[in-house]
Amino acid sequence: MGGTRLLERIREMTSEQDQLKGKGKAKDKPSLESSVLAHLSKLLNTRQGSTIISPDFGVPDLAAMTTSPSAENVARIESILASVVERFEPRLTGVKVVFSPSDDDPLKMSFSLQGTLAGQEADAAVFFQTVLSPSGRISIQRAREAQ
Hints:
Blueprint: H1 2-20, H2 29-44, H3 63-67, H4 71-88, E1 92-99, E2 109-117, E3 125-132, E4 138-142
Antiparallel strand pairs: 1-2, 2-3, 3-4
C-alpha cells in the first residue's frame, strides 16, 4: 500500500526535475485526479492504528456511526473524512465533505467530497462521491460536479 504512493512520489520528483531542465510536461489534471482518487481509496479504507507509517493514518472505525445516522453522527463523519483527507492528501486543498442523502440504499451513507488540486492552473476543482457501507468500507469515485 505505502509502496505504491512512494513510487508515485519518486516518479513525480523525476518529472519535476525534468520540467526544471526543460524536458517533459506538467502532470495533466486527469492523471493527477486519478492518482488522488487511488490514494483516497486507500486512505479512507485504512483503519487508524493499522499502519507503521503513522498511527493516525486512515480513518477510525465508522461502522457504529452508520447504524444510527443521526444528525450528530453525520456531522462527525463529515468532519472526520475532511480532516483525514486534508492531513494525508496534500495535493487537495479546500476540502469539503457534505452528506448526500440517497433513497437507493438506506443502509449506506453517501457523501460528496470536493477540493482543489494544488499546483494546477484554472479549473482545478475536483468532485468525488463517497459511499460508506454499514461494514465501514468506503467506496469513492469521480463525480461530475458538486451535488
